[in-house]
Each structure stands twice: as C-alpha cells, then as structure tokens.
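Work Package 4 report. The design task specified in the project plan requires that, given a folded chain encoded as structure tokens, an amino acid be chosen for each position. We show below one input record used in the internal validation round.
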C-alpha cells in the first residue's frame, strides 16, 4: 500500500516541517525528531560602542516617550537633579529596554558605564543591549575588558559564555572555558551546567550533553528547560524516558504548550496513536490556536481512517494558518475520499498556489482533472 505523505511538525520548532508517511489503518512512519536549535541568529556589526550626541529630533522623540511612560519621566527628573548618578541612568536604561526602545536604552547604558565602569550590572546592561542591536563584537569586548579587572566574576563569565555560544559561528571552546570558570567559583550553578549541555549537544557529544542536563536538574530540580532537553534527546532515540522528562516539565509548567506538544509528538512518532490524539486534544484545549498541534491531530485521524475528523481538523488548521500549503493538501485528500471532487480540486489548486513545488498535490490534481 502506498502511503499518503504529509508534512509533520516537530516540538519546539514549528518552522522546520519534515515529511512523514501516514499509512491507512494507523500505521505511522515518521523520521526521528531533529533536535531544535535554540541558538538565536546574531549578525555581527563593527560599529563603535558609543554613539554620538543627541539631535534635536531625538530630544523631541524622548519627550514623547516620557509623556507615555511616567516611570521614565520620573527618572528623567531625578537625573536632572543628579546628572552624575550612574545608577539613575542605569535604571532609566532598563526602563527604556523594557519598553523596547533600544536606542535610548543604549544611550543611558553607555552613560552609566562611562560614569562607573566597575559595576558589573552596568557592564552587563550595556553588553546585552549591544548584543540585542547585533553588535556582538562590542558586547563581548566589554565583558572581556571587565574580566581584566575581575577575572572570577560569575555573572560576567556566564554572560560571556552565552555570547560565545550565540554567535553566528559559535566559539564552543571559549564558551565551555567561560562556563567552567563559573563552576570553579560556584559548583552548584545550574545555568552553567545547562549551557554546557547545550554546547555538547550542538557539537554532537550527546553523552556529555545528557550528563550536563542531568547534573542541571540534580542541582536545581525545578529546571524546566533541562527536562525539556533531556526529553528531546531521549525522544530522538525513541527512548520512553522521554515521557518521564516531559511529564516532569509539565508538572513544573502545566501551561507551557511546548511540553505538552513534545509529549504528544513522542507518542505520535512511536505509534501510540490514541494516546497521541488524547494529548493533542488536551493541548488544543489549552492552546486553541496551536496550528501545529491541530495539523498533527488531523494527520493522526487520517491515519486511523477517521476521514471526516481529519477533514475537520485540516480545515481548523487552515483557519489558524491560512498560508500552510500542506493543510490544503490534507483537506483535499480528505475531500477526495469523501467524494467532494470539486472541492478537492479547489484545495489542491490552492495548495499549489502556496507551494508550486508540492508534487503530491500536483499529481492528485492532474488525476482528478484528467478524469
């Protein structure tokens, strides 16, 4: 029997669909889940760390911001009274940062740093802002400069290691060196173990990654992300321990849809169709707009010959994600089996409009139109 192919979506990374074969009568063959990359993509920019003076238009814009944010306006008044108080500039920078105004945040972080560059918080604030503005060189340079003064600072070393890890071309060795420096000062630093685990995972050393993530939860039993990472690794191995780790994550954050999704996806990948359906249903109750969960539930219903249910959930997927070509294809397959030929033709056509390379839809459309 030839399978009907759909794209399925893995937990934690809905932007990376992959092909899975849905056989009638419940036989499901799905490739191993690829571990989702967590590293953010940062583009290096070699701008100078400190900008120039403010223009008149900048001052006008700042006045508008202050009118809309009383907290910032209050800090501005205090700064006028104490223009050399680095802490006030730092506080206002944090407020700007929280409101998403990185331009003014950078200006105030810079001023706080210039007034007192030996306060770790000032260094970290400015470094984080530079990183957010895609100036990774400037961000890392600040941290390295501070470590010449205080080489054992835990927060600075931790952030430096994370920055090395997040580079477009990560410097894994330097990241590990930074995390190990943290652990020399604080043997029970769960974050350092966790990020070491991420480095090991990304470099293909899965055994060391598992060890680091396990040490993370031994150090901090409430470390949600470590349970998720262990679950993903075990799921990729089709190891039922994945369910234990996902359940632990869910117990820590019942409202976190990704944990419920990952559990349902593991069950789906391992042929536990009814359990997977029940878990997807629970997830959809919690997150009615989760298009990936709705889509995967549709493919499961198709696999067990619940064509009308599959049709309904493919339709719901389209309503939540109207640009997803495979949802139109899936609904088209169901419509064809339900003898709704004209609708199937329309759905296959729409699928091809969205994805001209979708060969399955093209083949089915040709068969229907040639009858």
């Amino acid at each position: 029997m030839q399978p009907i192919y759909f794209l399925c979506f893995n937990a934690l990374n809905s932007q990376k669909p992959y092909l899975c074969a849905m056989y009638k009568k419940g036989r499901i063959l799905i490739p191993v889940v690829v571990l989702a990359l967590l590293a953010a993509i940062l583009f290096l920019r070699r701008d100078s760390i400190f900008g120039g003076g403010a223009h008149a238009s900048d001052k006008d814009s700042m006045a508008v911001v202050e009118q809309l944010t009383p907290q910032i306006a209050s800090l501005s008044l205090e700064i006028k009274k104490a223009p050399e108080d680095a802490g006030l500039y730092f506080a206002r920078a944090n407020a700007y940062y929280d409101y998403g105004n990185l331009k003014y945040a950078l200006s105030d972080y810079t001023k706080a740093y210039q007034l007192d560059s030996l306060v770790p918080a000032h260094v970290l604030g400015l470094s984080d802002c530079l990183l957010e503005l895609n100036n990774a060189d400037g961000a890392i340079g600040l941290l390295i400069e501070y470590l010449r003064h205080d080489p054992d600072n835990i927060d600075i070393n931790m952030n430096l290691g994370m920055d090395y890890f997040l580079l477009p071309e990560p410097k894994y060795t330097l990241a590990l060196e930074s995390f190990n420096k943290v652990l020399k000062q604080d043997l029970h630093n769960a974050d350092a173990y966790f990020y070491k685990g991420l480095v090991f995972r990304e470099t293909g050393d899965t055994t060391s990654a598992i060890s680091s993530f396990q040490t993370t939860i031994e150090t901090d039993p409430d470390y949600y992300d470590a349970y998720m990472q262990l679950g993903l690794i075990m799921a990729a191995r089709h190891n039922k321990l994945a369910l234990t780790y996902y359940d632990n994550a869910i117990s820590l954050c019942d409202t976190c849809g990704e944990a419920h999704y990952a559990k349902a996806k593991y069950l789906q990948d391992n042929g536990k169709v009814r359990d997977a359906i029940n878990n997807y249903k629970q997830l959809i109750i919690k997150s009615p707009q989760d298009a990936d969960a709705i889509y995967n539930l549709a493919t499961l219903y198709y696999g067990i010959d619940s064509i009308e249910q599959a049709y309904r959930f493919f339709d719901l997927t389209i309503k939540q994600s109207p640009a997803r070509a495979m949802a139109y294809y899936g609904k088209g397959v169901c419509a064809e089996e339900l003898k709704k030929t004209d609708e199937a033709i329309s759905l296959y056509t729409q699928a091809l409009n969205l994805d001209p390379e979708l060969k399955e839809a093209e083949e089915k459309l040709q068969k229907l139109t040639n009858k």
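Strands lie at 4-10, 13-22, 28-29. Validation will be extended to a larger panel in the next phase.
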